[in-house]
Each structure stands twice: as C-alpha cells, then as structure tokens.
Amino acid sequence: MKFFIVLIAALAVSASGQKIFSLDSLPVENLDQETRCGATIEADSGTLTVPSVGQNIEPGSICIYTIHLQTRSNFRFNISSLNVTGGERDEDCSDAAVRIYALTNLVPAESVESYTFCDDNPPPTSGSFFLSGNLATVIYHASANASEDSGFTLNFEAVAFQPIPTTHESSYTSATTGLIRYPVEGEYETNRVNTWLIKTSDADANLQLDVLLERIDMEECEANGNFTVNDVCLCDALIVYEISSTGILEERERLCSRSNDTLRIEYLGPNFIIAFFTDHIDVPGQGTGFQVIYKPHEVATTTTTSQPSSTSGSSTAAPTTTTPRPPATNYSSECGGVLTGTNGLIEYKLDGSYSNNERCLWTIRTPYRSGIRLQLNSVGFESRYDNLQIYTINSTGIQDSHYFDQPVTSPVSVVLNGTVAFVLFQSDYSNTGRGMSLEFSAEEGFESGILYYEDRNTVVDAENPVTTRFPESGLYRNLELSTLVYMSRYITLESVRMNITSLDLQVGTDGSCADKLHLYHVRDPTVSPPHNNHLSRYTPVEGICQMSDVVIPDPSNVGQGIILILATDEQSRANGIEVEVDTIGLSVKK
C-alpha cells in the first residue's frame, strides 16, 4: 500500500528495512534518524539512548520517538539510566521529563495509558513497567539547565503473541508545510497502523499550524452490525495528537466514518502525530482514506463547525486567506513557488477573488517521472482574458504545453510529457474571478536521462536585488536539469532585469553547446486576445554556453519574469553561471 507525504522526494529506510517516503529534504533525510531529536522506530525490541553518541540536544528541546512493534504486541520497558533535570528540584516533572504514551483507537482519549518520569519521579524500583498495544511514543523534554550528562536510556521489548499480525508504516518530518494523502488511490488495506510524526519545532519552535482533514472515508463499525454509536471509531480511525512545549501529548481529534466536510484544526503547536488505525475486517465499498494539509496558521473568514466524530479542539471551516510563502513542498496557497513530489496541490485564492494584473508562476517537479497529470478542480476565470498556462520542459527547453481559459466547476485534467512543469496564472487589467484549485500527480513512467536537479523561485523588487551563482560552489553535475525563476513583485510598476555576469558550460568538440542554458521571458503577447502564451524564448533554440554568447549589459533581457533552464549531458562539467537580477521601473503604467 502506498502513501505519499512528499516534499522533496527522498527515500529513507526504516528500522525494518522498508522504504518509506520522507517529507524532509534530501540532505537531512540521508542522516541517521538517531542524530536528530526524534525518530520513527520499527522493531520488536531495542534500546533508545538519548542523546546518541555525538549528538548535541539544545536545552529546552522536545525529542519525539514513535515505536512500532512489528510481530508481537504489548511493551515491556525499563529505564537503565535517567538524568534529565540538571540537578534542579522538579517534583512535578514540569521542567524536564521522559513521557511515554500508548497510541490506540481502542480506548477513549481519557483512558490512554501513559507514564511520566524525571529525576524526582523515577521509574519503578522493580525495573520493568508495561504498556498495552503495539504503538507507543516516547517524548523527551530536555531541561533548560541540562548538563552534558543529561539524557536517558530506554530498553523495550514486545511480550505478547499477536494473533492477527498488523502491518506498520511510519514517517518523520520537520517540514513546516505539507500534504498527506492516504492511500494514493483505491481503498486502504486492513489491519494496518500508519503514523506520520510532524516535528516542525526543528524549524520554528514558536510555529502555530492549521491542519485540514479532507476527503474522509473510513469504514464505520456500525456497518458490521455489532457496535453501538459510541463504538464507531473502534474499527478504523484517524487520530491527531498534539505535543505541547513541555512534551505532554493530547488527543486533538478522533475521526471515523465518512464526511464531505473539511475539518480545520486551528492553532496546533509545532509538533504533532497523525495516526491511522485499521482493523482486520474489510467492508467492500468503504475506505478510500483521507487527505491532510498542514501549514502555518492563517485567519479564516468562516467558522462553521465540521461534522465528523471528534474530540475537543478548535475546528472550523477551510481557510480562505494566505500565509507567507512556505519552503519547497507539495502544497501552495501563495502566488508562485516550488512544489516537489509525486502529487501535490495548489489552492490560490480558492474562496476569494484574484486581482487584476496578477502573474503567479509555480515550478512543479515530479522527480524522475516522465509525465505529469494536472487536474484543475475549480476556477472562476474571466473567459479568454485570464488563464492558467502550463509548460513542461526538457533539455531542449519547452517540451509540451496546455492552457485553461474557461471557468471550471467540475474537474478537468490533462497529461503532459515531462518531469518538471511551469504553471503560470495570469490575469489582465480588467475584471476578476474566483481563485483556483489545481492538483498534480506523477504518471507511472520514469525519466532515465536526469539524475540531478534543483529548482529555485525568487520574487524580486527594487529593494531586494539578487545575485545568484549556480551552483553555489564547485562544478555543476552531469545529467542535470535545474531551473531558476525570477518574478517581479509588482508587474504594473517594474520589470525584472537580468545580466549574465558569468557563463561557463561545457562546449562540444564541434563547437556547439554540450551543456546548455535556456532563457525565457514572461511577458504580455503583442497580438490581440486571447493571450494564452506568456512565455517567449530569449536565447537561441540551441541554447547558450559561453560568455561569447552574452551581451553585457543586456538592456533587452527584461520581463515580468525570467526563467533559466540549465541542462547538462553525461560528460564533463564546468563552473556554471552567475546572474545579477534587479528591477527596472516602467515608463508607462499598465
């Protein structure tokens, strides 16, 4: 069974050797999980030592570990060393503690088993203590006065036979924005436990999040005829746990059955766990799963309460405003950005109206796939004059294209060849319409001619000129297809201007470019409407590769936006490019 929670699609390997999709960027995910202040552990026994050898845990940090037993159930724990309070008195364990919780849908939230230990409230003198079930979370709240010796060692093992083996799958991320869809298609499998540990405090300890739960379709217990209305979440359930700044775990929502509503949890702290439990009974026609979107908090304009079964928590209707542009991810509600993954979603001014003279450009990357499906779910374009333009690229430049220029109330889709696409939304100078929802997903085929990539999307204004060297150091890579996008913040007042100050790409033996730079401008067409093509090639079709191909200064290298595409072959490397980008005021306002 597949589940996707992709930001920058890197593969991590869990403790059981099973590959899972990770939300973190590639450099972070390649680190051993034990070097981070948190992990997902899949094993029937083991030892958790915090901090691990060479690890430095900042005072006051929260470390979160989820433990999935694999073939047996019920935990036996013992803590062989405990020194967490740094010598201070802490009888209520409020300053520092190790907390252990059972995660399950089989008992109410108020009945969940848990333990809290600190120096003034040590583990049992008998050594061992027990926890029911096959899923637990261990939370370490480091003291603000922690010493070099602060930490603990926890040993665990499974002690009970499991008559119906449960499949476990888990993931960990510190990304501050993301989209989770489970399963990607079809119905989910029975007898599974899936967890997603989202620990955004690694990026921002003071972050407040909005979590949206959508497309909820889970098996209902009463459909089996043996359960009361109070037991509906005993079969399949989705639970959201929040972890406070002191490491206390609280169940915020428990969902089951079906709902067409969007449930919004507001002001969630930076650390939380999503757990999905399914039983061994398969009810045909039920169970297409759920979708979760989380992002920094934004103010909602409506406050209707959702309908699914839930525990306490602040829950309102879907958001209608935007937040500052998030980092690279597979979800965006902003005017432009980078989305990377096997699927994702753009919701731009979905519940409001866009403005005149907008230019929003998103870069969508489906790593190593050869095709992208784009589905426009809804939009309220002014026909013929406002539109959504989609361009896929390869080593020669633009590969394929499509545009949507009519209002949409039911989904329409298109499949384009390519592994990376530019999505450009543009509105003209008069009349407006309703915003849009656009999904993308990778097709099954793979692109074997690309090994490396990097995508950047930068907004430029008069106060923030940009100098970019690519790569930042050393030589670029073989079989690379990377993109750099620069967009004007105020297209009616200023345009983006670029000068290429260094260009050193590989030249073939025949004098032609072996590695190539393609450059495109975003600009208004000069022909009469409809204007369905705002990208114009600036460099020759064969691309450029040396400074002899460049004019300095270049007064005509100007546009509402400028796109650079770097494409390299499999042989030899060079220094790459450097560009200076600023804005130039328009003599006539549009």
Topology of this protein?
Elements: E1 10-13, E2 19-22, H1 26-29, E3 38-42, E4 45-50, E5 62-68, E6 72-83, E7 97-102, E8 114-117, E9 128-131, E10 135-141, E11 151-161, E12 167-173, E13 178-182, E14 192-199, E15 209-217, E16 237-243, E17 249-255, E18 258-259, E19 263-268, E20 271-277, E21 289-296, E22 315-316, E23 331-332, E24 337-340, E25 343-353, E26 359-365, E27 371-380, E28 387-394, E29 397-404, E30 412-417, E31 420-426, E32 434-442, E33 455-460, E34 466-470, E35 481-488, E36 494-504, E37 516-522, E38 535-537, E39 558-559, E40 561-567, E41 576-585
Mean pLDDT: 83
Helix content: under 10%
Largest sheet entry: 6 strands, antiparallel
Q: Using DSSP, what is the number of strands?
A: 41
Roughly how many Å is the radius of gyration? Answer: 26 Å
Structural class, judged by helices and strands? mainly beta
First and last CA, distance = 52 Å
The percent range for strand residues is over 45%
Contiguous uncertain segments of 5+ residues:
1-35, 300-328
The number of helices is: 1
Shape: globular
Keywords: Disulfide bond, Repeat, Signal
Protein name: CUB domain-containing protein
Pfam family, one: CUB
InterPro entries: CUB_dom, Sperma_CUB_dom_sf
